[in-house]
Amino acid sequence: MTHALQPVLAQLNRVILGKETPIRLALAGLLAQGHLLLEDVPGVGKTTLAHAIAATLGLRFSRVQFTSDLLPADLLGVSVYERDSGHFRFHHGPVFTQVLLADEINRAPPKTQSALLEAMEERQVSIDGDTYALPEPFFVIATQNPQHQIGTFPLPESQLDRFLMRLELGYPDHDAERAMLAGETRRDMLAKLAPACDPDTLATAQTQAARVKIAAPLLDYVQALAAETRHQQRFAYGLSPRALIGLVAATRAWAWLDGRDHAIPEDVQAVFPAVAGHRLLSRASGRPDPLAAVELIGTVAIP
Hints:
The protein has helices at about 5-15, 20-30, 45-55, 70-75, 110-115, 115-120, 155-160, 175-180, 185-190, 200-210, 215-230, 240-255, 265-275, 290-300; strands at about 35-40, 60-65, 75-80, 85-90, 100-105, 125, 130-135, 140-145, 165.
């Protein structure tokens, strides 16, 4: 594997030990210009990964702790009347950054969660009749605790669909955990991280990834996977066109990270669970079915 972002992967793997696949998926999601949802139990490194991604890519970073009393203005900004000028002046909120960490996003009520919808989809914010463009690039990395934990609000379907990928880190294996216990603390490591990339290099990598070739039979495979989600009665909704566009972009990014200029079925299969898993809601429970995407890969034939 040879590409411009190899030092980025190497540095992230030194911070988050034993999680090569989730880290590569996260980087593929950013290459595809998508947003990431990290869902797992507290304490497994979700926030650390978000900090490490921003620092390693050399991007401006803001963190917002989502709580039950967080208001949309706390996130987007607010217009304040200035007596001297006789005009309102807009004060930018923390969303005006390149990497926004929405920490524990499902602890905020739906009204505050929905304040991110326009920012995530259109890279802009509309307040009091005025529209403000967000910086480029702009990524939202949200962490989420499992829905059964106290004080959480489920993310609405429209919000879930704007996250390109949902990732889990899980507990580290024995060797990785032992290395963390015996080595430097993650906080100290984050404080010392130097950028292994810059925004221009990232933009070039995104352009190159978007040019990865996808043959017509591979698009047939993508559509076959989507058709299966729309026909099965187990799902409340099938995959949306936005999801398929994101799946193709993530497939291209995964292939590019593998050093290829063309995608293969294994690239689709590698990213499909992360792209589709949070979108496939069980008709019975109304919650994401985490195993459904993996099962679909085994049932839908490759053309």
